[in-house]
Design goal:
Elements lengths: L2 H12 L22 H17 L41 E2 L2 E15 L2 E12 L4 E4 L4 E4 L5 E6 L4 E8 L5 E16 L5 E7 L5 E3 L6 E2 L6 E8 L7 E3 L25 E2 L6 E4 L6 E4 L5 E2 L22 E3 L6 E5 L5 E5 L3 E5 L4 E7 L8 E8 L5 E3 L4 E2 L6 E7 L1
Antiparallel strand pairs: 1-2, 2-3, 2-26, 3-4, 3-10, 5-6, 6-7, 7-8, 8-9, 9-12, 10-11, 12-13, 14-15, 15-16, 16-17, 18-19, 19-20, 21-22, 22-23, 23-24, 23-25
Length: about 400
């Protein structure tokens, strides 16, 4: 697999976190005939019995007709530094300041037909019971800000059932049944709504061998999105076709995206959603109803993610990838500091950044790991063990506000 291909796939997979259903479909209400109470109770018991006997491991199921009560976020949120430099993937929580590794995934390729393969994601979620991570069977996961609950997609690769899991108890708080298959979920910044991107078929298909492997170029199968409101239990589906590839004769500056996975994400204040591009700007914004709109004024993002590039105090902004990286002042553009790292990922606080560092003298850029680095680059703390990010089964983190 080529370096460009792997980097692109990893970046798009994050967006989910970017990084990342984007609309609310009102729960369909069926008209019930006025049966007697005893008949209704008997029917409910029979339905439950059928469900339980058909499941290998029955789970508590709550139909979210009036919403799902969510556990409160910690207040104040923890800000300590947590490291695991002995295990790869990590066995203990990794965190720094306001952000933590809430989940991670590993990818594998499995044959489909001919020389085609599909990329499968295997997800592990933070487990407060052990202060580590636990592998899950779900197709996609995302942890809400505060790290108390996770949204999960039940299914093989894609699914029509989105659940909300209490991370502390590992119990499902509720399920949302959807009419369209979804391939990613992302929590809103306030941790009350879930954005699920819908696909007509699985997007992560590859063809070729070795360094010649590349995505199957059939165009993205994205069809639209859901916004799921956990407070009311309501969902709504909106169509949103994908961006296409660049074609001869296209007007200059036309946004395009040749990637099959085109997961949608939230704006920083949760009032808009965005779709990724591979051009500049790297995203297009829409209202929650799917109408194109201008980008929010003053917002800047870590490329291809939903994470703000601007420091919590609003003074500094993260620079682009590349050794060394730089951080500049928002108002003047002057360089505030340079860092001997490969990528800047998220602000831990106003003075320190979670970044991707490299082992030794950076002889091999793929031998890398998470670090905490100061704005001026003078202080660096290793957060996670270095690993071969270009190797089979390499793990990829998801960062979430604590």
């Amino acid at each position: 697999m080529t370096r460009l291909l792997r980097d692109t796939l990893e970046d798009w997979a994050d967006e989910a976190r970017v990084p990342p259903g984007l609309a609310d479909r009102a729960l369909r209400r069926r008209a019930w005939k006025p049966y007697g109470a005893a008949v209704l109770v008997a029917a409910m018991i029979a339905a439950i019995a059928v469900f339980v006997t058909g499941q290998g491991e029955p789970e508590p199921v709550v139909r979210p007709a009036t919403g799902i009560p969510l556990p409160p976020r910690p207040s104040p949120a923890p800000t300590d530094v947590r490291t695991d430099v002995e295990h790869s993937p990590p066995a203990k929580l990794i965190a720094a300041g306001r952000m933590a590794v809430s989940a991670y995934y590993r990818t594998s390729l499995e044959p489909v037909s001919g020389d085609q393969k599909r990329m499968r994601y295997t997800w592990s979620l933070y487990d407060p019971r052990t202060d580590g991570y636990e592998q899950t069977p779900y197709a996609w996961v995302d942890v809400a800000p505060g790290m108390q609950v996770a949204a999960v997609i039940e299914g093989d690769l894609l699914g029509r059932r989105v659940g909300v899991m209490d991370l502390n108890t590992r119990q499902m708080l509720g399920w949302f049944e959807l009419e369209h298959s979804v391939g990613s979920v992302a929590w809103s910044p306030d941790g009350t709504r879930i954005l699920a991107t819908a696909y007509s078929s699985y997007p992560d298909l590859m063809e070729g061998e070795g360094d010649q492997m590349h995505p199957v170029r059939t165009g993205s199968p994205r069809t639209g999105y859901y916004v799921i409101d956990t407070r009311t239990g309501e969902t709504a589906y909106h169509e949103l076709p994908p961006l296409g590839d660049s074609l001869p004769g296209d007007e200059p500056g036309k946004p395009f995206n040749m990637n099959n996975r085109q997961d949608l994400g939230w704006s920083l204040d949760g009032t808009l959603i965005w779709a990724p591009t591979v051009t500049e700007p790297d995203r297009l914004f829409y209202t929650l109803d799917g109408e194109p709109t201008d980008a929010p004024e003053g917002e800047q993002y870590r490329r291809m993610t939903g994470i703000s590039a601007i420091s919590p105090n609003g003074r500094l902004v993260l620079g682009d990838d590349g050794l060394p990286t730089k951080i500049t002042e928002v108002g003047t553009g002057q360089v505030a500091g340079r860092q001997r790292v490969l990528q800047l990922h998220a602000w831990a606080d106003d003075e320190n950044v979670i970044a991707l560092g490299c082992a030794g003298k950076c002889e091999d850029e793929f031998n890398n790991g998470l670090v905490l680095v100061s704005v001026d680059g003078s202080r660096m703390t290793q957060l996670a063990a270095n690993r071969d990010s270009n190797g089979d089964g390499a793990w990829r983190w998801v960062l979430t506000p604590r």
